Each structure stands twice: as C-alpha cells, then as structure tokens.
Amino acid sequence: MHDLNLRRTTNIKEVLPNASLRHPSLFDWDFLSTLNAGKWFSHSRIKPFYHMKPLSEADKEKAGNQKIPKLTDLLELAQKEKKLVIFDLNSPVPKHPARKEFVRLVVNVILASGIEQHLIVWLPGFDRKYVRSTAPGFQHVGRLFTIERLTKENISRINVDYKRLFYNGLREYKAANININIYIVNEPWLFSLAWCSRIQSVTTDNIQVLNQINHPYFFMVEREPK
After folding, report:
1. Residue 41 belongs to what H/E stretch?
2. What is the pLDDT of residue 100?
3. How far apart are CA 180 and CA 98, in angstroms?
4. SS3 for 57-110, per residue?
5. Peptide bond just before 184 cis, omega within 30 deg
6. Spatial distance between the Cα atoms of 87 and 140, rounded to a whole number of angstroms
7. Torsion 96-100-106-111 (CA) sign
8. What is the CATH number of domain 141-226?
9. Is residue 160's pLDDT more than 90?
10. Angle at the Cα of 49 (from 48 to 53), degrees rounded to 5?
11. How far from each other are the two terminal CA atoms of the chain, in whole angstroms?
C-alpha cells in the first residue's frame, strides 16, 4: 500500500479498470484480498529489486500467485523469525472514517498479534504520544529533525535519505549520540562510505551483494606527482 493507487503492484486494471486510480484506503479488505499482487514481481520488465537475479520457473509460479498479505501475516512471520518490522504508514484519504484514528487501529492490531514490542521500529510521527503510552516497547524513529526536536520527543534514532544526510552533514547527530539508518544503499562504495562514517544501519534492495562485504572498499585515484 506504499503507492497512491494499486496499479503498479496488483492486477486492479484487469479487475476494476474504472476504479484503478482510486486510493487503496477506499477499498475494503474483501475486495483487496482477491487481487493478484505477485505478477508485477515475477513478470515485470522492470526489476522490483536492484540487481535482482532471474527467478526460476518454480519461483515465478509461486510469486505470480501471491495475494496482498495482511499486516498480521507480516507480524506473525517477523515474530517467528525474530526480525524487526519497519514500515511507512500512510494516512487514509480525507473524510475516510479511520482518518483520525488509523494509527490507533494499527497499534491495536500489532499488540493483538503478540509480537514482541521491541521488534517494531515505529516511524509515523502522528499520534506518537498515544503510541508511546500504549506500546512503550516500540522503537521510535524520527526523520532528519533538529537535535532539539529529537531530544524533546525523546528520539535517539533517525531514518533518512543518505543524500540529505551527507549533504547536511552528520557530525552534529553523531555528537548527540543519535543512531542513524540511511536508505536506499545499494552500491558497495556507498555501503563502504556509510561503514567508514559509522552509520549504524542501512536499508537496501541489494542484500545479496552487501551481505558479502566484510570490510570497506577503498579506491585511490592515481595522480602523477608534481
């Protein structure tokens, strides 16, 4: 549900073409659960992930038949594998019945799933006070806010676009002991830069390559002595 409509990642243009540009929040789950959410991944000319290798025929068939998962499905998998869950939470459209309480609804679903709270990396800033009081174990993450704001909101980790971070400078965040996650880091040289800058973590679509790097890469430009 990351896009403003369902055209890129589902077959809604085939099923309901006249409504294919509608916001996802305007459809109920009974309809959403019928959509195919895998063909774009397995049959698209544009690779969903950076340097994605071709899928086997068996994987194509498996991926091509996937439906939209429920949040509870993701939470159950994360709890089983002891993996962190981090996601953007887009608000419903104006006048949607859940417009003002969507954060609380999501928090209630998370708590009801039984997942350990420390596995939830919470990004949304809307209604954060409620989230802190209801789910004190969530790991709260901010954006590229000022140190003053991060301190006031008791946030010690930020999630930022690497281009903005390195442009603005990271010295003040490091000095304030702010942990940093940057995105999207796909190239080994950029991963090496983050490593040497003592960035705590990165988000990547190229895990199969970055996972093999056990030391930073250094490249020297050859120059003739003067």
Report:
1. helix 39-43
2. 95
3. 32
4. HHHHHHHHCCECCCHHHHHHHHHHHCCCEEECCCCCCCCCCCCCCHHHHHHHHH
5. yes
6. 12
7. negative
8. 3.20.20.190
9. yes
10. 100
11. 58
107-110's contacts with Cβ under 8 Å and 24+ in sequence apart are: 107/131, 107/134, 107/135, 109/71, 109/72, 109/75, 110/71, 110/75, 110/135
Residue type, 8: R
DSSP-assigned beta bridge partners for residue 179: 157
Give the chain's mean pLDDT.
Answer: 91
DSSP-derived pairing of the beta strands 85-87 and 120-122: parallel
H runs (alpha helix) in 114-187: 128-134, 147-152, 162-168, 171-175
CA-closest candidate to residue 106, choices 98, 116, 95: 98
Could you give the 3-state DSSP secondary structure of residue 130?
helix
Domains of the chain, by residue range, sit at: 1-68, 71-138, 141-226
| pLDDT tens per residue, range 120-159 | 999 999 999 999 999 999 999 999 999 999 999 999 999 9
Place of tokens 């040497």: 196
pLDDT in tens, 68-116: 999 999 999 999 999 999 978 989 999 999 999 999 999 999 999 999 9
pTM of the model: 0.85
